[in-house]
Amino acid sequence: MVSDGSQLERLQKLIAQHGLASRREAETWILQGRVTVNGQPAYLGQRADLRCDQVAIDNRPLKPDSRPPSHYLLLHKPLGMVCTCYDPEGRPTILDALPRRLRDLGLHPVGRLDVYSTGALLMSNDGDFTHRLTHPKHDIAKVYRVHLEGTLSPQALASWRQGVQLNGKLTRPAQVKKVSRPDAYSSVLEITLWEGRNRQIRRMAAIFGHRVISLHRLAVGSVWLGDLACGDYRSLSKEEIQALLSKHHPTL
Fold it and tell me: Lowest CB count within 10 Å: 54, 80, 99, 105, which one?
């Protein structure tokens, strides 16, 4: 059968739609040679039609009717867990926080929290959902409670709000407010960011000469952690999913 082109999709999107990985992870699989199309190694940018092309990952065929039901979860990430589905160093991953019945559904993190951070983490096996929420054009707010060593000066506070240079690129303006000062040697901030560079808060704090003692994410968009216990999870409501996707819809 020859495709008429109407069902051609990029490989990373097909893989993500089947809940096997995020699009970014799927691209890595393609580069690693784990993906084939009709028996030949796949390449980035390649498109396929599952009605007539045989796409396989690690020699396991991707079937048109094998897409699992979509799941959308909020997890209270514990300290010490890595935000991946597999860690070559053998450290506990966020999948270890889920019951066994959910571990084989292709759930993956929507965004990241580093191993030393805790709090609100979205997970899903819907690749389009993940793509939309992690796309640079999707301005989704993330709220953090940050415990700093030392007291942030008014000048540093103003600079943090306006943006600072990280690797030659100015960070976007942020909301930064002092929540409390537990003692004379540390302070607590509530920070709202609209971007997610690697270890951004820790790196910005270091620029001002402060070490982050703890970093806890309170919310992703309109989804708040609330009283969800550490290590627990819950499903997102339809209203929460719609709210997360409503602000911006980048090109898929």
Answer: 99
pTM comes to 0.78
**SS3 (DSSP) at 59:** coil
Whether 83 contacts 103, CB under 8 Å: no
Enter the tokens of residue 83: 């935000």
Residue ranges in 154-237 assigned as alpha helix (H): 154-162, 200-207
| Marked catalytic residue, from 4, 96, 104, 114 | 114
Q: How far apart are CA 145 and CA 157, in angstroms?
A: 15
Establish how many alpha carbons lie within 13 A of residue 59's alpha carbon, considering only the half-sphere containing its beta carbon: 0
pLDDT, tens digit only, all 252 positions of the chain: 444 445 788 898 888 777 677 777 888 899 999 999 999 999 999 999 888 899 999 998 888 776 778 899 999 999 999 998 878 888 999 999 999 888 878 788 998 899 999 999 999 988 778 888 887 777 789 999 999 999 888 999 999 999 989 888 999 999 999 987 667 788 899 999 998 788 899 999 999 999 999 999 999 999 999 999 999 999 999 999 999 988 644 433
8 Å CB contact between 176 and 189: yes
Q: Is 104 a known active-site residue?
A: no
